[in-house]
Design goal:
This protein has 348 residues and is of the alpha/beta class. It contains 14 helices and 11 strands. Helix content is 42%, strand content 18%. The chain is globular.
């Protein structure tokens, strides 16, 4: 009996000690926080939120940056899980030294610049997605341009020398048997707004411009009409598989290696952003203005449907870009840094 009583007392002491010992393998989550979607949690535990990261992002005015505009607005309002620091510039050349130095975690740039960076700064960036297709149009104030061949003997004002506009225009002209400098004269100006001013003033009868400048200029220059859609003309003469892809999203390779989760969260934000832009143009136009990408919301709303904002990733992106780079190289190799980029340029 005494032995039984003693055993009972020992068991009570053991249970008491266990009950008072904190469980070391249980993770708690502060009230009001939750783990990002896709975060794995052990069975029987509460999810722990990932630590927010800070990413430096470069985007350009015009279509190249439009797909990111909603993210810009959300980040400015503190609605994103991670902190995003946006830099917006009129063109990539303004920040070329920063791009080469790898100072951005994410960058939206012309597709041919991505190829050039692969040579100037090997391994610094990987292409994660294509974010715009063709956005270039030829405006004509003479009512004489009905086909590409009608450009023979004409002077075209354009912007984007050394970038997508130049290779797209040269490719279309060359494939139609027109030689630049002999059959067609092209004068490149520094900025699309400079070309637009000449068209509006009547000083430039024929010009190639990207959206949203086409919409803006057409509204102010009564005689200027869209004569040619460069994307359509590209498709008529391009090799099989080649698509006119204007810009792409680059990911800093070191950032991806050191903080893959943050990059993947951004890409998920970007996919949603592109969908929002294409389905809610009025609201997206406000985001575009807030980001400083386009100055007028009404103009942005009209132009967005013509800007071909997309998010193309994986094998589809890789196959089409390889065909595009080969096409550019055949016409003007300097526009892709003198070589067709290897497969290392693509994010795995």
């Amino acid at each position: 009996m005494k032995k039984l009583l003693a055993l009972t007392m020992v068991l009570c002491m053991v249970f008491s000690i266990v009950a008072c010992t904190p469980a070391s393998n249980v993770t708690t989550t502060p009230t009001g926080t939750e783990a990002p979607e896709g975060t794995a949690t052990p069975e029987g535990t509460t999810p722990t939120p990932a630590t927010p990261s800070e990413l430096d992002i470069f985007a350009m005015k015009g279509p190249t940056g439009i797909g990111m505009a909603p993210i810009f607005s959300d980040a400015a309002a503190g609605k994103t899980f991670d902190k995003y620091n946006f830099t917006i510039a009129a063109n990539a050349q303004e920040k070329l030294s920063d791009l080469i130095a790898g100072n951005y975690d994410i960058a939206s740039v012309p597709t041919n610049l991505a190829a050039t960076l692969a040579k100037k700064a090997p391994g610094v960036y990987k292409i994660a997605a294509v974010n715009t297709l063709g956005v270039l149009y030829v405006l004509d104030s003479t009512d004489s341009i009905k086909s590409v061949n009608d450009l023979k003997g004409k002077k075209i004002y354009a912007t984007g020398e050394g970038q997508v506009p130049q290779f797209a225009l040269e490719y279309v002209l060359t494939k139609n048997g027109l030689k630049v400098g002999t059959d067609v004269e092209i004068e490149y100006l520094a900025d699309a707004s400079d070309v637009g001013k000449l068209v509006i003033a009547g000083s430039a009868e024929i010009a190639m411009l990207p959206q949203p400048y086409v919409t803006q200029v057409s509204a102010k220059a009564e005689k200027a009409k869209v004569a040619l859609d460069i994307t359509e003309e590209w498709d008529k003469v391009a090799e099989e598989g080649s698509r006119l892809m204007t810009s792409c999203v680059l990911v800093n390779a070191k950032t991806y290696e050191n903080d893959k989760e943050a990059v993947e969260r951004f890409m998920e934000e970007f996919r949603k952003s592109v969908k929002f832009v294409n389905e809610n143009t009025a609201e997206a136009a406000k985001n575009v203005v807030e980001a400083g990408i386009v100055a007028d919301a009404g103009l942005a709303e009209k132009a967005i449907p013509k800007c071909n904002i997309v998010c193309i990733e994986g094998e589809e992106m890789k196959t089409s870009l390889k065909a595009l780079y080969e096409a550019i190289f055949a016409v003007n190799s300097a526009l892709v840094g003198g070589q067709v980029p290897s497969d290392d340029i693509y994010l795995k």
